[in-house]
């Protein structure tokens, strides 16, 4: 009895230093998101102080994204590099090590939040894409290309990993799993995976164009269109490049999407990237039940209906009307990531319920042997089991909910652009060059950045 209680107490004390073990992660990030929704500067000390901790990879991602949103691309690079090193450490670490054994043991007694955070594949893909944008807005096209190529390689490797895992998923299928998978699939809409991201492929295609590599650009635009087939700006890119490259697909594309838009001599190009909102937070489902005459709870993370997706964004201040159209629903990627992890999460849940039940049964048995039915140790054990059961709600919460794109050829000059007919940004258009405009909307607050490439 003393051994079991001592083990629980030591885990509790160590868990206090594990930020998300007993304090759900969304509540920790909420003040930072509120600051981003206003003009106040978010204070990063609380999360940057924990980059070396249990959730360090996640805090590095959040810090990098917050610095990026507020225009500090240099600081963002550093935080993202820290997150990349953490991912590499996970890759290099042996499957069985003392650190993993310890983490998994605490996960069996506490909850999944005590397991060091290793983000789902789509977060790692987005990490490299956002690092590429840091390089782009610092004027380094080659550095950006390295990052988006890594992003695309990760999409391919995640797809192989997912296909390999499907055999084990199918062998675990039962009514409860099938029902939750079906519900999450409905919430994700037409997006069917977490690892195929048209946004990343589009940025890669854009970079190839800027570097004078139209064949490579065409390939990546086509991959993006396979994932996001209804984006009119992407369709125009494919028609234009198919014509320029004398591709056999040109006649088919022209029939489906119309004639390509041809710039006038000395026109410049403006490319818009618009990001809207924040990805939804994971919610918790907790189910109480009795096992071996002891109270147990099972808590799982889930997503609920997050309402209507953002509408296409009208862009004001141009000679002719233009709207940014969706290229990726990041919220759907997050939902699919949870769906793909569900079978493994349920296995961990079952093992944890069994472990806690056995610990409670042994404490109860010891109490009975001492002729003390109401021994405080047995009561404390049951309270510990209920309180310690917390769903793992960790995820990269400063990602946008949706990404949109738009393009337009314009005469040389200055243009006052805005998404709200209010404060915006004056952008310069130069002959035969590309002006990239990045608009980030965080719950009604708009930030604008531009660079000529």
Automatic annotation (TrEMBL):
Does the record bear Nucleotide-binding in its keywords? Answer: no
Question: What is the annotated signal peptide range for this record?
Answer: 1-19
Question: Which keywords does this chain's UniProt record carry?
Answer: Signal, TPR repeat
Q: Is-annotated flag, keyword Magnesium?
A: no
Write out the ranges of the repeats annotated as TPR. Answer: 198-231
Domain of life (superkingdom) = Bacteria
* PROSITE patterns for the chain: TPR (PS50005)
Coiled-coil ranges from the UniProt annotation: none
Spell out the InterPro entries in the cross-references: TPR-like_helical_dom_sf, TPR_rpt
Name of the protein in its database record: Tetratricopeptide TPR_2
- State the species of origin: Shewanella denitrificans (strain OS217 / ATCC BAA-1090 / DSM 15013)
């Amino acid at each position: 009895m003393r051994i079991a209680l001592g083990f629980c107490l030591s885990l509790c004390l160590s868990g206090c230093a594990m930020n998300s073990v007993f304090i759900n992660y969304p509540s920790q990030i909420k003040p930072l998101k509120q600051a981003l929704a206003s003009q106040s500067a978010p204070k990063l000390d609380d999360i940057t102080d924990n980059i070396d901790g249990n959730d360090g990879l996640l805090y590095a991602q959040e810090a990098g994204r917050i610095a990026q949103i507020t225009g500090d691309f240099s600081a963002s690079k550093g935080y993202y590099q820290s997150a990349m090193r953490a991912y590499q450490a996970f890759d290099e670490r042996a499957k069985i090590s003392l650190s993993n054994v310890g983490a998994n043991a605490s996960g069996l007694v506490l909850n999944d939040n005590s397991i060091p955070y290793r983000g789902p594949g789509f977060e790692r893909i987005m990490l490299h894409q956002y690092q590429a944008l840091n390089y782009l807005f610092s004027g380094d096209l080659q550095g950006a290309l390295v990052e988006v190529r890594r992003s695309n390689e990760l999409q391919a490797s995640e797809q192989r990993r997912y296909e390999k895992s499907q055999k084990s998923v199918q062998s675990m299928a039962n009514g409860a799993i099938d029902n939750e998978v079906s519900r999450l699939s409905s919430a994700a809409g037409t997006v069917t995976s977490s690892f195929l991201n048209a946004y990343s492929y589009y940025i890669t295609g854009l970079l190839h164009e800027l570097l004078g590599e139209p064949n490579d650009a065409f390939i990546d635009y086509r991959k993006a269109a396979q994932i996001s087939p209804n984006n009119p700006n992407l369709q125009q890119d494919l028609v234009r490049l198919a014509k320029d490259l004398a591709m056999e697909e040109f006649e088919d594309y022209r029939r489906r999407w119309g004639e390509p838009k041809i710039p006038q001599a000395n026109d410049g190009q403006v490319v818009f990237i618009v990001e809207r909102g924040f990805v939804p937070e994971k919610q918790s489902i907790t189910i109480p039940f009795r096992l071996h005459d002891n109270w147990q709870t099972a808590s799982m993370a889930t997503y609920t209906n997050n309402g209507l997706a953002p509408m296409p964004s009208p862009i004001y201040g141009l000679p002719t009307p233009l709207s940014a159209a969706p290229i990726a629903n990041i919220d759907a990627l997050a939902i699919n990531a949870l769906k793909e992890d569900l079978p493994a999460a349920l296995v961990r849940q079952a093992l944890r319920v069994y472990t806690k039940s056995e610990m409670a049964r042994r404490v109860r048995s010891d109490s009975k042997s001492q002729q003390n039915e109401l021994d405080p140790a047995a009561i404390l054990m049951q309270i510990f089991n209920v309180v310690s059961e917390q769903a793992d709600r960790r995820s990269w919460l400063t990602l946008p909910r949706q990404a949109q794109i738009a393009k337009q050829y314009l005469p040389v000059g200055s243009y006052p652009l805005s998404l709200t007919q209010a404060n915006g940004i004056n952008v310069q258009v130069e002959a035969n060059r590309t002006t990239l405009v990045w608009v980030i909307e965080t719950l009604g607050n708009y930030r604008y950045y531009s660079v000529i490439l």
